[in-house]
Amino acid sequence: MTMGPISRRRLMGYTAATGIAMGVGPLTSMVNGAVPMRQRPAKPVVMGHRGCSALRPEHTLGSYAKAIQDGADFVEPDLVSTRDGVLVIRHENNIAETTNVAAHPEFASRKVTKTVDGEQLTGWFTEDFTLAELKTLRARERLEGMRTESHSYDGEFQIVTLEEMIDFVAAESAARGRIIGIIPEIKHSTYFAGIGLPQEGRFLERLNASRYLKTAPVIVQSFETANLRSLKKAVADKPNVQLMQLIGAPDESPADFTAKGDKRVWKDLFTPTAMADMATYADWFAPPTRMYIPLGKDGKMAAPTGLHIAARKAGMLVGTWTFRPENHFLAGDFRNGAGDGARNVEGSLAEISHYLKTLQLDGFFTDDPALGRKVVDQA
What we know:
Distance between the termini: 28 Å
Number of strands: 13
Oligomer: single chain
CATH class: Alpha Beta
Strand order of the largest sheet: 7-2-1-13
């Protein structure tokens, strides 16, 4: 997930120092029991963040397979566009960190610097490649100094299209006998529209073309607001589809606001009036974890902000991103002495449990769905 003008990777530094029943019906009637739209699920929904990105290179079929095996209710594809207008799955359009593109001399001249959602980035960008060209690349783990298991799969998996991912999830659902939802994020919406590659229409084409997604639960996310408002009308006849408003850093603006000259920032949208307006199009409210329970100067958990209560009063489901199992990302309360990059299973379980008990979350993203599943099922 990336917001503008601050990227989710940068916000990570700011914020950090069971299954689904088989059947047909509205999204929430397929998650943890029969309930009407927007009514809270019986158990928090486990969302595999980029699949199982703690243990496999993100957004690969290997990552999605592991997430599904480990009990994720939903798996997440982040959507960006190729030069020829195909939706492929990458966390952002700059693929310098997540592929081996730098090792391909034939693409050396395509390394450029661009401004995307207000952030200047240097690398290789999906919109400068055809799908056929991207298929010659291989995925790799982005985080250095941690996630050894994920790094062991570097070079094993290709970049996949949204269509390929949907078919894979449908196949996994058929094999495992349970419905698995998808929770796609439309990345850099204003940016891609500005270069003649709008993504929402292509997403709707894939949604409408999939037999599996006619009934399987879908939650569409964005760090922008205008595209979600537009999509609300487009999916009004699809009871299995919900929309999630992702929330960025309090003092930053959604990219669509910036493009229109709207000076409001995210924290301006937390008033009762603004939250009520958000609830007219968004089913879910999803800021980063630390906006619900911030960290004090000592790196340990402070008092909740009450933002989850405001969202629920407005009528939205309460979600958050992202729980990660390494000490680097954990609150000081839950770290151990194994080192900053060390995997800390017990600490991650304790942190997830604390958030669920304190906030009564309706759903959450985790890089390690097995840990999220364990907490939810033991609650």
